[in-house]
Amino acid sequence: MMSNEIVAPILPCVDIDEIVDFYRMLGFERIYRQTRPNPCAAVRYGAIDLHFAGIPGFDPEQSYGSCIIGVDDTAELFAEFAAGMRAVHGKLLLSGIPRITRPRRRKNAGNSSGFSIVDPGGNWIRVFQRQDTDAPPPATDPLARALENAVVLGDSKGDVGQAAKILDGRLAKSDSATPVTTLAEALVYRAELALRLNDTDRAETVLTRLRALALTDAQSESLTTTLATAAELEHDMGCR
Questions:
Q1: What is the distance between the alpha carbons of residues 201 and 206, in angstroms, rounded to a whole number?
Q2: 13 in Cβ contact with 19 (< 8 Å)
Q3: Are 1 and 77 in contact (CB under 8 A)?
Q4: 212 CB contacts (<8 Å, ≥6 apart)?
Q5: In Å, what is the CA distance from 156 to each residue of 25, 131, 143, 218?
Q6: Taking CA 78 as the corner, what is the angle to CA 92 and CA 24, rounded to the nearest 5 degrees?
Q7: Among 37, 40, 47, 214, which residue's CB has the most CB atoms within a 10 Å radius?
Q8: Cα three-residue angle 219-222-228, rounded to 5 degrees
Q9: What domains can be seen in the chain, in order of their start residue?
């Protein structure tokens, strides 16, 4: 059995300098650059190495490039990437290319936390938490199940429109029996989807509904991350 193996994907892009600048923004360092005979570059963050090949005329919208990165703490890594993005753009880039999603439980990954980066080359960098023994069991509440399905579509597959439809259908049926914490989480994700669709009016409507929820102190504490995300979304709406 070999040990200390290193695997580094080679992903496509249009411009190697553009893609290096993007990853530098997130906190990576450039470790290699070559322009002839073939343009290529490599970046590194800790033990994460990504290599890129410049392809003239390449269309990022048509990219199938993707890789999976396993980390111990998706929230910590996301916070570092997000800080770099906000320092440059003043907000998170949620739509178009490039963009980033927030860490959320994904039922298509064993309910482990994950987030995605779509870089300027259209490559999907999928970050997942390794050995997440605290992952909860699959949801049983109808809205919670709809939220799980929406996250898979919106964050894993990039089908934001269908994710929004799934949540809208279930949110319209929510009632007093719906757990208020689940409702809050669904509303915040629906607001984020609205911003990805450039529908600020819908985002504001959903966040207004969130603000009207009567949360106990205990519920607010359990929703610390969710409510912080809502505040970030409101900030990003002001930056548009």
A1: 9
A2: yes
A3: no
A4: none
A5: 23, 19, 19, 31
A6: 75
A7: 40
A8: 105
A9: 139-239 (1.25.40)
Token pair recorded at residue 88: 């440059």
Q: Predicted confidence band at 138 (pLDDT cuts at 50, 70, 90)?
A: low
- What phi and psi, each to the nearest 5 degrees, are found at residue 88? -90, -45
Which tens digits make up the pLDDT trace of 23-47? 999 999 999 999 989 999 999 999 8
Residue 186 backbone class (left: φ over 0; alpha: ψ -120 to 50; beta: rest): alpha
Query: 100 and 108 in contact (C-beta within 8 Å)?
Result: no
Residue-wise pLDDT tens digits, 187-231: 999 999 999 999 999 999 999 999 999 999 999 999 999 999 999
CA atoms within 13 A on the CB side of 99: 19
For 59, the token pair is 């269309």
Taking the chain, what is the end-to-end CA distance rounded to the nearest angstrom?
Answer: 53
Q: Where do the DSSP E strands lie in the chain?
A: 10-13, 29-34, 40-45, 48-54, 66-71, 99-100, 104-106, 112-118, 124-129
- Give whole-number Cα distances, 72 to 76, 221, 225, 234, in Å: 9, 24, 18, 29
Q: Which residues contact 88 (CB under 8 A, 6 or more apart)?
A: 25
The three-class DSSP label of residue 152 is helix
pTM: 0.87
